[in-house]
Amino acid sequence: MQQTISKEQKAQMRAERLALRDAIPPETRIEKSLAMAEHAGEAVAFDPGTIISGFMPIRSEADIRPLMARFEARGARLCVPAILDRQTIVFRELLRSAPLVATGFGTAGPGQEATVLDPEIMLVPLSAFDDRGHRIGYGAGHYDRAIGRLRQKGMHPKLIGIAFDCQEVAHVPDEPHDISLDAILTESGLRFFASWIG
Q: Residue span of the signal peptide, if any (predicted)?
């Protein structure tokens, strides 16, 4: 019963927060997205060659391409998700010269010829978050499974949630198996839930 309530609560929070995000005018979203690049472009610590996964914006998501460009300029290898099936996403290397193709769920990214990479830092889209670093995704569970597969390989990717301030909620109902974020990036700044970033 508790799990059903939790699932219904999450669905309601997801719908409410995505409606608020959808209501942000496109030009304001651009300004907020550029603010994110300013807040995190230099503040996220990583060595050159670090593999960082981002994403191409869909619907009303923040456009983190300016942030990804900052990371690339600092030596990051970039990748973005491609949906293989209902259960699986992989992360394909994003190169400036490579053409982009439809990669599922309304997203675009490199085609099947691109190198598949295992990200060490992941920029994670989400629908809602709280001040403990708990998140609600879009409901398909793609990122949770992808992170689970990386952990099975012995990797522990650092997770930075990407959202607008309006997507914060007081409390995300969480369960023991839920994966929490290391940080959240909004237009107001980069908030840490773990010490590795700063």
A: none
